[in-house]
Structure formats: C-alpha cells, structure tokens
Design goal:
Helix content is 26%, strand content 23%. With 566 residues, it is α/β, with parallel strands linked by helices.
C-alpha cells in the first residue's frame, strides 16, 4: 500500500476548535513526534454514515498538520467480531478516499503488552482482582448522587492479585467469576473512575488469536495503551467519551507513558430518518428485514455505496456539517442535496420509462427509424451528445397521458399535443382500450416532421415536454425506488418486533422498465440521471448480463433547499 498521506485527498476543513487545540500543541512542542490520529472501529458490524464523519475528522486533522492517520481494529471482544467485518471496514474506508496505507493495526496484536501493563498496575497497588458478581458490582457502584462502596476484595495485597490474575490468564476460572479492576476512587463524581473493570474472562474463540487468550481488556483500558504504542498524538473521539477522558489520562499517567497522547472530543452526528445504532442495524440484518449489510435502504457505507452515493458527496456532507462540539441532529436531505450537487454536472442524462404506455405514430412508415442527437448533460457541454433512435412505435410514461385531464395537466391528452424530448411534437388522435377492463393499451398519434428539435419550427409552443423510448431499441431493466426504511428510529420496545417498525413502502420494485439504448452496457456502480425521475445507479448485486437493475439514489426534487431557506 502507499503511504497514508498520499491517499488523504480530502479538501481541508475550515478552521475550527479542534484544529486550534492541535495547533497549540504543535506550537508548544508538546510532542517530539509528528501529529498522528486514529480511527478504532470494533469489527462487529459495518461502518455507517456517522462513522464517515469520525473518519474524515481524523484524516483531516492528520492531513492539515502533515501527520499520519492509523486504522486500528478494536478487536478485544471475541464474541461478536469477525474477519468479514474487518474486510468490509477496510473496503469502506478506502472507498471514502481515506486509506491509511500501510498503517492498519489490530488491538489483538498488543495483547501481551496490555497484559504486562495490567501487571504493572497490580504491582503498584493500582489494580485488584474482584470476585463480585455483575449484579453486586452494580449495587456497590453507587449512583450519580451517592458514592459507591469499596469492594470487599479491594484490599487484597498485590502478590495475591498478581497470582489470581495469572490464574485468570491460565484459564483457571469460568466466565464472570472474576475481573481485574482499577483502584481509583469509589466516591468520585465521575462514575467511570469508580474502580472500573480493566479485564474480564471470556472463554471463546477469537477470530485472529484463536484460544491463545481467555481474558480480554476493556476498551477504556486497552485503547490509551494502544494509542501510546502506536505513537498517536491526538486520540479524537465522539462526545460520549468525554467523561471517559479522566480514565484515559489516569491509565497513561500510572504507566508513566512519556509524551502521552491526548484525548479530544468532537460532537456526534445523528441523521433524521435513519438508524445508526450498530445493535439495531445488526438486528435488522440478522432478522432478515433487509437484504444484508449493504441493503440500499441502510445508512451503512456499503448500503449507501450500493444505492449510488459517492465518496465525494459524503465528504461534502461532512464539510457542510463542520466540526461540531456536541451531539447534532442533521437532516438526511442534506446528504441527498450533496449527492445531487456532485452528480448534476458529471453524469449522463438518459430517458427511462418506468411505467410504459405504448404510442403508435400512424404517419411513420413501418420499420422506419432515424437517429436524433440529444445532449448528454445540459449542465455540462463537455459530456457531448448521443444518438438516440426514433421510430414509429414508442413508449411514454403512463402518467404522461390523461384521457380526462385535471386542471393544470400539461402533458398528452386526446386531441392534444406535446413535444417529445429532443424529437418532435406529437398529437393524440385515438385511445385503444381493453374491451373488458377498460385499461388503456395504446395511443394512436401522429408526429409533425417539421418540428424536429433544433429545426426551423422547433420553437412552436406546446403545453409540455415528455420523455420517451423507441420500442424497437429499448433496453429492459428493473428499477428499485427507495423510501425511509423505518417508521420510528427508536426501534422495538418490549413485546414488539422490528416487523412493526419497518416501513412496508420502503422499497418499490418496478419490473420491465424501458431505457433508451446506451452506448455501453451499464456496469455495477454506473450512475445516470433518468430524465424527470432522479439519479440512479446500476445495482452491484442484482444486475445481470441480460438485464441491468437500477437503484434510485435520490429523486430530482431537492427538499434541502426549501428547508435551508426557511
């Protein structure tokens, strides 16, 4: 892999409080090493849009100060971790354009060093083995308004604690019977300092180390040691870890770490209309309510990528939010707005008919066709134009015709005219219906050959312009339209099921839609604007050589602009 800094291609964030804090440290000579940040995910699920904010924050700070960015897997809980998640996280981070290069690390690689640190604390009288049950430990801990009580095992001498801890490592005790706790202050107003657990017993197979260990460190104990071992200068994390900072600093101080890394917090970003709780996401996936971690309805980075969001749109989204200090609720429509802004001038616009209605042009000779030149993108002339076949049998959107039009309807009606995009004006003369059901089967129309777009009479006024495809040349495809997945982001309450919360209209599957012929076969991840419908992406799992499948990323209408203006 290339060096991490070569992959940090993000546009720098504007000046903010985090940059000011780091700049002061650099100017004050706090560290004799380069600025180094890290992102430490636990490999027990896929990354989501909130993860992207944390990743970009860490990468941006390292980049601004000419430093280094590390990816470190917090893999110290063997019960839920898996190599599938490791590979997915690396894939997502590289897709974001935030590759750490060669700087990929695993917390489990530091197991021996963390264990030795625990023994150091025991010998200093700063840690002890406790036999309280989890329920007893909770009772002894106290409340926010009342101090806790010392464990009856708090007074064990260092030699006994060391023996017991080594026996824990040797597998002499079953799960839950003993833990190693820090000896700090059971009366501290900060609950995190009331003799927190440092190690617990877990007899389980680890996805990397197998059964080499049966005791595992807690994150609050492991991650400051891991930061120190890697030379991290600034341990940037979300605001919920602010109350954990005193414990982070206590660990480093008691271990006499020179130039210890500094923990600093940024605000947590939540989005309206989506759930980012890893626990909830896992329940939706394992319960079969969605099509895996990359379901296009999920806010996972894999899901967003499959739906068609771009890394550039996510980076722009992060820049729009800026560096927040506290928890912020951000409207999901801002992310959609950033996607539209990214795609509007760089993807081709094509005609796709999602609900086809047949149109026969009675004044076109049977089998005749011609090629019409249509611009690929009205926002960007550099994308050029394409040749689109026009023939005597076409398909238009069923909603673009009304036999009995309502007031204000400006598309095709009996006896009325519309312009076909990039082609001619047509007039409807006859409506053909199913004799039994009354369903409209086709329209008989004529076209005016003098009104070709760009011709002398192309300016003749008609009520509306609609898109179309030639029946003989159209590509069949399936299209998926997505709406909000959940009716309530809080998730099921006691006695309820996720089935009660999944929006039954969150996905609409349209079969046998028709597209104009494309110059090249759509490849997974190819993006287009479907005229009048929105932005679409070729699905990476469902598309076949015979039939492409498209996901609607976002509709054309931008709700964020309206919200931003209010």
């Amino acid at each position: 892999m290339t060096d991490a800094n070569e992959n940090m291609n993000m546009t720098a964030m504007p000046e903010n409080y985090m940059e000011k804090l780091i700049r002061e440290d650099v100017a004050g000579g706090v560290f004799s090493r380069e600025v180094c940040t890290r992102f430490p995910p636990e490999p027990n699920g896929y990354l989501h849009i909130g993860s992207a904010f944390a990743i970009h924050t860490n990468v941006a700070m390292a980049r601004k100060f000419g430093g280094c960015f590390h990816l470190r897997f917090d893999d110290t809980n063997p019960l839920k971790e898996d190599m599938e998640y490791v590979e997915a996280i690396i894939r997502d981070i590289e897709w974001l354009g935030c590759s750490p290069g060669e700087h990929i690390y695993y917390g489990s690689d530091y197991s021996e060093a963390i264990y030795r640190s625990a023994e150091t604390l025991i010998l200093k009288g700063k840690a002890y083995v406790c036999d309280l049950t989890p329920e007893e430990m909770t009772a002894y801990r106290g409340t926010l308004t009342e101090p806790g009580q010392d464990s009856p095992y708090r007074g064990r001498p260092p030699e006994e604690n060391l023996r017991l801890f080594r026996e824990m490592r040797a597998g002499s005790y079953p799960n839950g019977t003993k833990v190693l706790r820090a000896k700090i202050d059971m009366a501290s107003p900060n609950m995190n300092l009331r003799d927190p657990v440092l190690y617990r017993i877990i007899h389980a197979q680890h996805y990397r180390t197998g059964d080499a260990w049966c005791i595992y460190p807690m994150y609050d104990f492991a991650h400051p040691i891991q930061d120190a071992l890697e030379g991290i200068t600034h341990s940037l994390c979300s605001i919920e870890f602010k109350d954990h900072r005193p414990l982070y600093e206590w660990v480093l101080k008691e271990l006499n770490i020179p130039e210890p890394p500094r923990q600093r917090e940024f605000g947590r970003v939540n989005l309206t209309g989506v759930v980012t709780s890893k626990r909830h996401l896992r329940a939706l996936v394992s319960g079969g309510y969605v099509d895996g971690w990359d379901d296009p309805r999920l806010p996972t980075l894999s899901g967003l990528r499959r739906r068609g969001f771009t890394p550039e749109s996510i980076e722009a989204f992060v820049r729009e939010i800026g560096m927040v200090r506290n928890t912020a609720m951000v409207d999901f429509s801002l992310l959609e707005h950033c996607l539209r802004q990214d795609l509007k001038a760089r993807v081709p616009a094509v005609m796709a008919v999602l609900n086809p209605l047949k149109v026969v042009l009675t004044n076109v000779e049977a089998g005749a066709s011609e090629l019409l030149s249509i611009a690929n993108n009205n926002e960007n002339a550099a994308l050029g134009s394409r040749e689109v076949p026009f023939s005597g049998t076409l398909f238009i959107e069923r909603e673009d015709f009304m036999e009995v039009p309502v007031k204000g309807f400006r598309r095709l009606v009996p006896g009325g005219e519309v312009r076909l995009k990039g082609a001619y004006i047509i007039r409807c003369h006859e409506v053909i219906k199913d004799a039994e059901t009354g369903e409209i089967l086709e329209l008989r129309c004529t076209y005016d050959p003098e009104t070709r777009s760009g011709g002398a009479l192309s300016g003749r006024k008609v009520k509306g312009t609609i898109h179309w495809v030639s029946a003989a040349h159209a590509i069949k495809s399936d299209v998926y339209l997505y709406e909000k997945l959940l009716t309530d982001n809080e998730g099921p309450k006691e006695g309820e099921s996720w089935a009660d919360y999944v929006n039954p209209d969150s996905v609409t599957h349209l079969k046998d839609c028709l597209l104009e012929p494309l110059a090249e076969r759509p490849q997974p991840g190819d993006r287009y604007q479907f005229l009048r419908h929105g932005y679409f992406c070729t699905d990476s799992k469902l598309s076949t050589e015979e039939k492409p499948v498209f996901n609607r990323i976002v509709p054309l209408k931008d709700s964020w602009k309206g919200k931003a203006a209010t």
